[in-house]
């Protein structure tokens, strides 16, 4: 500990000199790797070479235009226009944008997408292969058309009305309705409080075509647009292409002013109670509004302020976590955060999730912690730990700089263009962080916090369930609590208790490597330790300075009777709150200051596991934590009771949540109401036993020889070998070997059809269809099912979404499970108008019938094939690819890294193969069809 404090002190002394290198009032330079310019028509461009992922490129068009610019007659049309960009442009009529790109494996939704917000609209085409001749030019042409050449044909507009109406319906949940109630109060009845982006249904269904065209021509223009292209290409050549193509777009004559909406200040506090019948949780939040820093004013001080906010947020979070570990916590959760919303407003948000009928207690507790900071600030120990963590994070990010992906850069560019958020590049910011973070003091953090925690522009918002028996805070009570806390003379300063940083004092025995076996197919080795434990190691530095640990042991909760299932399943949620070894959870966090290593455990249905990750230099710490999980687990009844009280409060009103009702119903139906399928509610939690949890944990996380461990990452073999022998080899073991038990939890046979009424605030039908049947766990079947799910998604997008306008989207997932039985599953789900469910469901089956009779079309197969191969190539550049495949080989017995088990199958998959697999599976599969409909009052 003394050595750590000495290093921190020296770092602070050295930082004084480093700080002088930066003029905090000067503008922040833009990443020198970014080529940027402004064309004569006003369009801004940003080009950057990057190699993550290799041989890929991402294309963004960033519009400084959003819902805030709509007239009342255009409410929702900024978002509607975003949809229309995929429904016909000058060079890509109809669905030409999507079909042209999907032929190269660039999938709609996954790689081709967009979003609309209050102030901006951003389109992206991500991870495009750079190899196909002309494809990058095609992507530039798409962006070019999005800029100024949307067709906006009346037939396409009318077809999209249905899709957006269903998106409107899907979004109308408790959270959305609550937000619409609170936003006018939060943003002082400004236009920002009125525009919810999706708009109003009567406008969506009935607007005149020219209203949409007017918004497009008024606001989609070059002086409000930026092009960002990042990827594995020649940046100079790409820059010339962008200049040549986009310079041809004419500037708009006499353009409308791109105005900003100001949220007016308000001296007196505002209160809003926002309730919803489907809201399962009560919360109380105090917001303090401030005028956000303007884009022109942002400089090096902006970065420094961001560091200060992060430090404050992290230290407060730690204090709140301490409260949650003790006795009967005053709230379920609490937080203090800073953020800008909308772009002209900066918010301090003090929020707490309350137990039922305890909103006053929760609000007073979180405000007391805030008042403690206001009066006394933070301790030196707290700050030095958080500085160390922040600097460690920057160092790790710096070492991983070659793994920053194209889209991350594009999103940074969007923030730079839209709001002048500093983007100096990781090299520059790393040096700046090293210089500045050590210089930040407790006094200036306290001073800064108090400038944000002001009495003006306060808004108190109470949200929760509208339900008999639940009393919510009113305005008088809320303001009285604020006054009470601010006048409480008995609030004391926070006491920070120092802890030792030594995790493992002495090992009872140090293990050895007794044999080594080469695994050439994985470029890995398997070690057998003196305690008869198997450990597989592979060096991989695709993600530099990162190491991952995984493990596997058969058994899991399958070995326990029904009475123990709640305890076994909740162990992975509760035990981490107890800490490890000699440290409770808070002390452990302090002991790990300056280290980036974590280990967790899991008890699943058929197995148990220990997993972890770390920086290379913290590998020994990770191995110590793994050792302690076996040999010195910690069980803290006070922490158990505290967490249980929070869980009980959390589930109190979940029974009224339609989503939870649907999930529980589906779960019961799919398992044929088996006794082992338990519903998560208060009765479930009452069956969780502290004493039994310790017994189950010690039974499952024990006997190292029954585990196989996997270590993959940027760690040299000799060091990995040494630490493995020392710590994994020291774990107790015996010759006992376990396996899982098949408890025969099966779905219903044949065809099951149910219509279930659910009380809903908005009329909506939810359709869920499941097929389940025997299917061998082979590479051919696994990949064939991936083809089936992808093809069905394409078909449903075309038929149910685009042609019928019947839903916002159809989700399809197909998979093959190995244990306890080899079987395939296809799950299909969508929301729609209750009046249309019976018309749309037959379309689901029609596409399945086509697959079983004819297979898939050549076009759909090619789109799917290229997308699967593209994703496969990208995944190979990650350490996780090797960890996952090696672990899967040991669990399932198939080496999926081999081309013969993957690429060759994908390349050769044809319509006959799909037809054969679809016919084999769907013909014999059991089927469940459940339709949830609104319950009539």
How would you describe this protein?
This protein is an alpha+beta fold and about 950 residues long. It has 4 domains: about 35-245, Cytochrome Bc1 Complex, Chain A, domain 1 (2-Layer Sandwich), CATH 3.30.830; about 270-405 and about 415-485, Cytochrome Bc1 Complex, Chain A, domain 1 (2-Layer Sandwich); about 515-730, Cytochrome Bc1 Complex, Chain A, domain 1 (2-Layer Sandwich); about 750-935, Cytochrome Bc1 Complex, Chain A, domain 1 (2-Layer Sandwich). The chain has 30 helices and 23 strands. The strands form 4 sheets. The protein has a 7-stranded mixed sheet, sandwiched between helices. A hairpin with a 5-residue loop joins strand 21 and strand 22 (about 825-830). Helix 11 runs parallel beside helix 16.
Uncertain ranges: 1-18
Question: Which CATH-level-2 architecture of the largest domain?
Answer: 2-Layer Sandwich
**Total strand count, please?**
23
Our Rg estimate from Cα atoms comes to 29 Å
Average pLDDT, rounded to a whole number, is 95
Tell me the overall shape: globular
Count of DSSP helices? 30
Distance between the termini: 66 Å
Estimated structural class = alpha+beta
Assembly form of the protein: single chain
Q: Just give the CATH class of the largest domain.
A: Alpha Beta
Portion of residues within helices:
40-55%
- By CATH, the superfamily of the largest domain comes out as Metalloenzyme, LuxS/M16 peptidase-like
For this structure, the CATH topology of the largest domain is Cytochrome Bc1 Complex, Chain A, domain 1
* Spatial ordering of strands, largest sheet: 12-13-14-18-15-17-16
Estimate nothing, just give the exact number of structural domains: 4
Quote the beta fraction. 15-25%
* Main beta-sheet annotation: 7 strands, mixed
């Amino acid at each position: 500990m003394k050595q750590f404090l000495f290093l921190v002190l020296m770092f602070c002394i050295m930082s004084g000199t480093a700080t002088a290198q930066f003029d905090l009032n000067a503008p922040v330079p833009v990443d020198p790797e970014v080529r940027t310019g402004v064309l004569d028509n006003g369009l801004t461009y940003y080009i950057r070479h990057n190699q993550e992922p290799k041989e890929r490129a991402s294309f963004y068009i960033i519009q400084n235009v959003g819902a805030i610019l709509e007239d009342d007659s255009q409410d929702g049309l900024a978002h509607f226009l975003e949809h229309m960009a995929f429904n016909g442009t000058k060079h890509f009529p109809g669905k030409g944008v999507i079909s042209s790109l999907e032929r190269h494996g660039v999938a709609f939704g996954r790689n081709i997408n967009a979003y609309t917000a209050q102030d901006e609209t951003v389109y992206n085409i991500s991870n495009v292969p750079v190899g196909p001749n002309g494809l990058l030019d095609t992507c530039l042409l798409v962006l070019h058309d999005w800029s100024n050449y949307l067709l906006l044909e009346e037939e396409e507009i009318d077809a999209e009305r249905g899709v957006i109406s269903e998106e409107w319906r899907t979004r109308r949940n408790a959270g959305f309705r609550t937000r619409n109630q609170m936003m006018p109060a939060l943003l002082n009845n400004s236009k920002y409080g009125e525009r919810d982006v999706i708009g109003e249904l009567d406008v969506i269904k009935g607007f005149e075509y020219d209203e949409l065209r007017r918004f497009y021509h008024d606001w989609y223009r070059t002086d409000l647009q930026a092009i960002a292209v990042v990827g594995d290409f020649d940046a100079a050549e790409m820059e010339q292409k962008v200049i040549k193509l986009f310079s041809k777009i004419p500037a708009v004559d006499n353009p409308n002013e791109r105005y900003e909406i100001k949220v007016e200040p308000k001296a007196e506090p505002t209160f809003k109670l926002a309730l919803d019948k489907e809201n399962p949780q009560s919360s109380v939040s105090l917001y303090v509004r401030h005028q956000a820093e303007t884009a022109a004013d942002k400089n090096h001080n902006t970065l420094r302020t961001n560091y200060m906010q992060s430090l404050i947020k992290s230290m407060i979070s730690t204090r709140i976590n301490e409260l949650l570990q003790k006795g009967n916590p005053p709230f379920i959760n609490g937080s203090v955060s800073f953020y800008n919303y909308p772009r002209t407003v900066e918010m301090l948000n003090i929020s707490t999730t309350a137990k039922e009928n305890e909103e006053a207690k929760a609000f007073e507790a979180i405000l007391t912690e805030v008042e403690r900071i206001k009066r006394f600030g933070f301790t030196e120990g707290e700050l030095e730990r958080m500085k160390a963590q922040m600097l460690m994070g920057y160092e790790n990010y710096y070492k991983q700089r070659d793994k920053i992906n194209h889209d991350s850069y594009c999103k940074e560019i969007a923030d730079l263009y839209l709001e002048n958020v500093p983007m100096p590049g990781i090299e520059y910011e790393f040096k700046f962080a090293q210089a500045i973070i050590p210089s930040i003091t407790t006094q200036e953090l306290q001073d800064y916090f108090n400038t944000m925690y002001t009495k003006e522009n306060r808004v108190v918002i109470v949200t929760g369930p509208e339900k008999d028996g639940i009393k919510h805070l009113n305005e008088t009570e809320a303001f009285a609590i604020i006054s009470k806390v601010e006048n409480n003379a008995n609030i004391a300063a926070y006491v920070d208790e120092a802890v030792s940083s030594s995790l493992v004092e002495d090992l009872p025995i140090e293990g050895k490597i007794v044999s080594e076996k080469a695994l050439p197919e994985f470029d890995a080795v398997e070690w057998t330790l003196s305690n008869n434990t198997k450990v597989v190691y592979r060096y991989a530095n695709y993600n530099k300075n990162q190491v991952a640990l995984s493990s596997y042991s058969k058994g899991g909760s399958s070995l326990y009777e029904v009475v123990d299932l709640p305890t076994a399943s909740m162990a992975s949620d509760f035990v981490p709150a107890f800490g490890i070894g000699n440290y409770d959870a808070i002390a452990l966090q302090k002991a790990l200051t300056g280290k980036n290593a974590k280990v967790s455990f899991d008890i699943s249905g058929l197995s148990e596991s220990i997993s972890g990750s770390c920086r290379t230099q913290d590998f020994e710490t990770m191995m110590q934590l793994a050792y302690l999980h076996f040999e010195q687990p910690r069980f803290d009844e006070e922490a158990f009771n505290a967490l249980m009280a929070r869980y009980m409060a959390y589930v109190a009103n979940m029974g009224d949540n339609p989503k939870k009702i649907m999930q529980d119903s589906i779960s019961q139906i799919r398992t044929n109401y088996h006794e082992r399928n338990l519903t998560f509610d208060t009765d479930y939690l009452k069956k969780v036993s502290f004493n039994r949890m310790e017994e189950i944990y010690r039974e499952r996380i024990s006997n190292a020889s029954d585990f196989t461990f996997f270590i993959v990452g940027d760690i040299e073999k000799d060091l990995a070998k040494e630490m493995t022998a020392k710590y994994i080899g020291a774990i107790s073991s015996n010759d006992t070997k376990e396996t899982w038990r098949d408890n025969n939890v099966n779905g219903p046979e044949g065809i099951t059809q149910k219509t279930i009424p659910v009380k809903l605030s908005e009329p909506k039908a939810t359709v869920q269809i499941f097929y389940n049947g025997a299917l061998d766990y082979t590479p051919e079947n696994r990949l064939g099912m991936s083809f089936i799910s992808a093809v069905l998604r394409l078909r449903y997008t075309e038929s149910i979404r685009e042609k019928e306008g019947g839903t916002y989207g159809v989700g399809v997932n197909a998979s093959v499970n190995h244990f306890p039985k080899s079987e395939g599953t296809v799950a299909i789900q969508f929301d729609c108008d209750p009046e249309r469910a019976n018309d749309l469901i037959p379309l689901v089956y029609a596409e399945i019938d086509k697959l079983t009779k004819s297979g898939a079309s050549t076009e759909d197969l090619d789109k799917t094939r290229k997308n699967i191969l593209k994703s496969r190539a990208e995944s190979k550049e990650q350490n996780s690819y090797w960890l996952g495949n090696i672990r899967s080989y040991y669990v399932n017995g198939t080496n999926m890294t081999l081309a013969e088990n993957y690429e060759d199958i994908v390349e050769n998959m044809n319509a006959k193969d799909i037809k054969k697999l679809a016919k084999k599976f769907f013909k014999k599969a059991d089927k469940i069809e459940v339709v949830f409909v609104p319950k009539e009052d």
